[in-house]
Amino acid sequence: MRVLWAVLLAVPAWAGDFTSRLWDSIGPIFQRTLEHPFLAGLADGTLPRARFDYYLAQDALYLSAFSRALSLLAAKAPREDWSLALNRHAVEALEVERKLHESLLGTGRPPAAMAPTNLAYTNHLIASVTQRPFAEGLAAMLPCYWIYWEVGKHLKKRGSKDPDYQRWIDQYASEEFGASVRQVLAMMEEEARTADAATRQRAQKLFELSARYEYMFWDMAWREEGWPP
């Protein structure tokens, strides 16, 4: 098992010096993510549908905030092509991913209220991209891209007995999604090359915090988290 985890958690070969350091910093978090019963249930088809529907409803709310955060980050981008790419990702978050969500969840459902974890995570992202320099805001946004891609590829190898769960897996394991992830990783690497040590350290802390929120999001869905009365 220890050897297996070493393979699963190895830094991707195409990661650069700084992004490799970022990935190394979240090794234990990513291991716990892969072990979470929500993701295990997606792969073997045993995840209760109510929990998946809860996740989809919360993720739809998350994507609206994530898209807004990307647009805010794009306005700070030091290069025009980066700004265009991030704005394009913001549109895709609302169009492509929401289309998948609606096809799985269906339409006509009453809008859900953001769960506490979802609200905390999205507030963290908005604060990071508005209050911090571009490099640090980018680092805060990166785990949503990178962790989803790595999770998608991992689950793709296992497959799922549930066709809806397999469609979700295919979305995030796709080369199209991977291309967007690689774009953001390239931005992060270039920013890190010119950043001072203090900026790189703050960026890593924001990256780690967002990775923790990613784990908490799966756990929130597993528990169908609600607000206390």
How are the SSEs ordered, and which strands pair?
Blueprint: H1 2-8, H2 17-25, H3 27-35, H4 37-44, H5 49-74, H6 80-105, H7 116-131, H8 134-158, H9 163-173, H10 175-194, H11 197-223
Helix pairs in contact: 2-11, 3-11, 4-8, 5-6, 5-7, 5-8, 5-11, 6-10, 7-8, 7-11, 8-9, 8-10, 8-11
Explained architecture:
With 229 residues, the protein is mostly helical. It has a single domain, classed as Heme Oxygenase, Chain A (Up-down Bundle). 80% of the residues lie in helices and 0% in strands. It has 11 helices and no strands. It has helices spanning 2-8, 17-25, 27-35, 37-44, 49-74, 80-105, 116-131, 134-158, 163-173, 175-194, 197-223. α5 (49-74) packs parallel to α7. It is globular, with a radius of gyration of 17 Å.
Which class in CATH terms?
A: Mainly Alpha
Mean pLDDT: 90
Beta-strand proportion? under 5%
N- and C-termini, Cα separation: 43 Å
- The rough form would be described as globular
Q: Helix segment count? A: 11
- Second rung of CATH, namely the architecture: Up-down Bundle
